[in-house]
Amino acid sequence: MTRAWFSQGAGLIAVVLGAMLMEPAAAAEPSPTQIAFQSGKFLEAAQAARDTSDSQDWSLAARALLAQILADANPRANGALLDQSIAFSQKVLSAEPSSVEARLDLAFALGIKGRRASKLEAFRRGYAGQGKRLIDEALALDPQNAWAYAMLGGWNCEVLRRGGHLGGKIYGAQMDRGVAAFDKALSLAPDDPAIALQYAVALLGSEPEKHAQKARALLALAAGAQPTDALAMIMIKEARRLALVMDAYGARAASEDTTRRKI
Predict the structure, then answer these.
(1) Which of 2, 52, 184, 197 has the most crowded CB, counting CB atoms within 10 A?
(2) How many CB atoms lie within 10 A of CB 162?
(3) Is the CB of residue 221 less than 8 Å from the CB of residue 196?
(4) Which of 132, 68, 58 is nearest to 99 (CA)?
(5) Is 40 in contact with 230 (CB distance < 8 Å)?
(6) How far is Cα 260 from Cα 147, in angstroms, rounded to an integer?
(7) Within a domain: 26
């Protein structure tokens, strides 16, 4: 039996905000990249970073491009932006081999690649293994990183969603590991709307009716959060939108909605 029918699981919709919501290191004066990013001008932020040699700006540019993909009305059309984000993250890792943020950004970008690719192509390119390695490295470098745990939770749940029992066996993914990782992430960052949203999406993608009550509670938590910047607002709006879908059409429809977006 072939193993080539599913792709890696870091590409849940909210994973993108894990690395993106991390604040850049404090500076005496914000750079043009930081100013554009904080105001939600993501393409401008990425453009500004191309003219610098600052790895912090490169990291922010990678996140800005991922944010643009998420915010776009047709996110699947942004393949070039995805490749640019990957290139920025790789530049950061070349300059700062111990960067946790670059690993998480890159893991998420590879997750999007995996969800957009056919199952055979995703397997051949090894998106699942690459994403898991990056997440594991991030946790080894920063064992209390909430977003590394959230991405680990998403990875386990998404591998099982696409690969089923065999996929879980091949890659070592388990639902209880995914839930435990998400719970750890929430304990470390209980007010982060993106983590709550990601957790809800992962549960809906697993067994929507079984997890409907918990998913509703997580969506409510995310929807009621206080926005701290443009990215947090995107997450809050997405949680509210998905909650409306769930209320109107049920948990399975909400699950199908997140799967169809493939971001």
Answers:
(1) 197
(2) 22
(3) yes
(4) 58
(5) yes
(6) 24
(7) yes
Q: Is 148 within the bounds of a domain?
A: yes
Q: How far apart are CA 155 and CA 107, in angstroms?
A: 10
What is residue 55's three-state secondary structure?
helix
Could you identify the residue written with the tokens 């300059």?
95
Q: How many domains is the chain built from?
A: 1
Q: Which of 156, 204, 161, 201 has its CA nearest to residue 180?
A: 156
Alpha carbons within 13 angstroms on the beta-carbon side of residue 13 total 33
Dihedral angle over CA of 230, 259, 188, 28, nearest 10: -30
Q: Residue 106: which of 26, 191, 10 has the closest Cα? A: 10
| CATH at 130 | 1.25.40.10
- Structural domain boundaries, residue 84: 13-189
| 154 belongs to a structural domain | yes
119-137 pLDDT tens trace: 788 778 989 899 999 999 9
What's the sign of the alpha-carbon dihedral 157, 163, 169, 171?
A: negative
Give the DSSP H/E element, type plus range, for residue 145: none
**Banded model confidence at residue 148, pLDDT cuts 50, 70, 90:** very high
Of the candidates 52, 50, 53, 84, the one whose C-alpha atom is nearest the C-alpha of residue 68 is 84
Lowest mean pLDDT among 53-57, 75-79, 259-263: 259-263
